[in-house]
Amino acid sequence: MAAVIGGAVTAAPRWAVGDGRPAAAAAPEPSDTPRDPVPDSTSPSPAAKPKPRAKPATASPSPSPSATAPPRVPASGPGTFTVARAGASSGGGNAYRVEVEDGSGVDPDTAAALIADVLAAPRGWAHAGARSFHQVAAGPAGMVIRIATAATTDRICATGHMNTHGEVNCRLDEVVMVNLKRWQTGSPEFHGPLADYRALIINHEVGHWLGHGHETCPGKGRPAPAMMQQIYGLKGCVSNAWPYDAQGQYLGGPSVR
Questions:
Q1: Pseudo-torsion of CA 87, 89, 92, 95, nearest 10°?
Q2: DSSP 8-state code for residue 138
Q3: Angle, nearest 10°, between helix axes 108-120 and 194-209?
Q4: What is the pLDDT of residue 69?
Q5: What would you report as the CA-atom Rg of the chain, rounded to the nearest whole angstrom?
């Protein structure tokens, strides 16, 4: 497949594993104020002394609310997909389509809006107008981003001789496979909000689609490259979802052969 990058045609590799490794074991997944007593309704006799005011009961501290339960993430699905239609346009640049596996619990249009924000972000692959992307719902698309259950991701990635172990993502020709488990729960190695980890998934796999290979940590305390397999450990770097910093500097590291 050839991808249009900044006006030039660059041949993308046949396949590239995102956070996965071919034929290597993936890291396991392993994210009421007390009130005074109500007064007695009966009136005391004239000679009766008023009863002393009862002391408010001392309430034990209420337990902290439990953390929000993580979303239910089905491990497998039918292998059929619904195309996102909201946000589709006929604009220029690299055309892509978003598809979500049926029964996954993810709304295709909502996911497409999040992906569009990542692809258009100043710190993403569109930095400084270097390239642009637009979503389509029909017709030719140079890239197809699919959010799928682990079983479906494994099956599709395996056609490119990649073992994603039910855990990670891959890129196969024009198809970017996003493992539903990672999309919904993030990674134990990534320190940041889920929205940032989703940005890392898209930036990493789209980076492969653009022809970038894997990179590793450039030095202790520095941002981990977006093209680093951060799910396997940061090697002294700090979590980072973006290929560029706010000044437009590429946040890369040594290539992994």
A1: 70
A2: S
A3: 70
A4: 61
A5: 26
